[in-house]
Each structure stands twice: as structure tokens, then as C-alpha cells.
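User: Can you predict the 3D structure of Enoyl-CoA hydratase? Sequence below.
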Amino acid sequence: MADEPHLLTREDDGVLIVSLNRPEKLNALSGETMQLFEAALLHFRDTDALRVMLIRANGRYFCAGADMRSGSGGATKRTATGIRENHRTGLHGMHRIYDEMEHIEKPIVAAIHSACVGGGLEMALSCDFRLAAKGASFSFPEGLFGVLPASNGVSRLTRTCGPHWARWLIMGNQKADADKAHIMGLVHDVLPDDGFDDAALAFCHHLKKSDAEQMGAAKIAIDMAAEVGRDTARHVERMANSALMLNPAYQARIEQYIKGIGSKE
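Assistant: Sure. Here are the predicted C-alpha cells for Enoyl-CoA hydratase:
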């Protein structure tokens, strides 16, 4: 496996499947991994035929986090400013890549089958949907060596699960199994280990059925509504819907939906 690419990609009828592929290193995020991942992400963004991106992993770990042994891709100045700038611009581009995942107006799904740690959890938090197998677990080990998960870990976890559960994982240095993660709101669903990959892919194909314009507008509107006040959030959803309702396909779809009300299907 050492000579294989650190990340594999394939397409399945409109779904781009990206697989972390360093099982012997527990899928630690190397410079090569992040370079290949960013290329795959931009290909997904720029290819209209690709509607959903699925992130999965090979081996007994989903991801052990950043590859601590290979370094961050450049020398870091031993000053507070240098460290902050390395978080922002170094670390093999994690900040830039994870931000782009949130900005792309298409759904990205993480299928987490086992341990998801540190930078791997930060990657998963940047996705729109997180599915966990029953055997999955989640943790931020950074507290064990006296720092924070600062590649958007604190901010995204707090935004997703609230300060209550962010304290549990980050200040409390606690692990969460799949069921606890579901209670926290960290994952959307917990699925059986057997058949997990097939179930995750089936969910992606379900998402693919949605209108692309609606999906993009929803992604933006939901993020904006979470960040602004109630009145402004109402303006956001009205503004988004005014554009969607001018889509030529809207009238045909609403008429078809009305005809189907009350049917057994």
C-alpha cells in the first residue's frame, strides 16, 4: 500500500467518491493527501455532472488526524504571530480547503466507519452531512498536549454542536462513540457497520435527486440564517426563494407535487 496514492477517487453516476488511502498510517493527513484532496474538491466544484461528493476511508481508521511525523509543510516561526499565520496558511492548506468545502454550493457527505480524530474530525465538520457507522468514534487529542484543534475545530464544533458539547470534547478530552455523537448532533445518522458503505452511497444518490439550484441556495441560506438575527434570516430565506421560484422548472414541479398529494407512494 505504501506505493499507492494517499487518496483515491472514482465517480459513480454523479457522485464523486473520495477515499483516504493510507491504512498503514491510519489515514493520517499528509501533504500528498491534502494536495490530492484539494484537486478532487476543485474538480467536484467545477464539474456540473458531479452532484454530490462522498468522503470515506480505507482501513481500520477513518482518519488519525494530521500526519504529525511529516510536519506541516514548512518551517513555523516560533512567535505567536508565526504560529497563527501557520494555522491560517500552512498545515498543507487545511484552512483554505476546509473553507472551500463549506462554500461549494453542492452537498458533501462524510461516511465515517471508525475512529475520526483531530484533523480528520475537522475535515468531517466541514462537510454538509456526516454519517457514522456503529463502530465509529470521535475525538480531539490536541488537549492531551496542551493546545486546541485550531484548524477550525473549535469554531466548527461549537457552531455545529454548541458550547456544551464543545467543552465535552475539547476541554474534557472525551471521546464520543457513534451514539453519543448522534445525541450531540455531531452526526446526522448512525448506521449498521455491515453494509455501511452501500448505505452511505445510497444516501448520496438520494441527495442527487434534488434540484441543484435549490441545494446550493439552501446551503447558503442555512449558513447565513445561523449567523444573523431572526429578522435578517427571514429576509435571507425570502430572497433565496424569490430566485428559486423564477426557475422555469418550478411550476412544473409544484404542479406534479400537488397531483401526487394523497397518493400511496
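The chain has a mean pLDDT of 91. The first strand starts at residue 7 and ends at 12.
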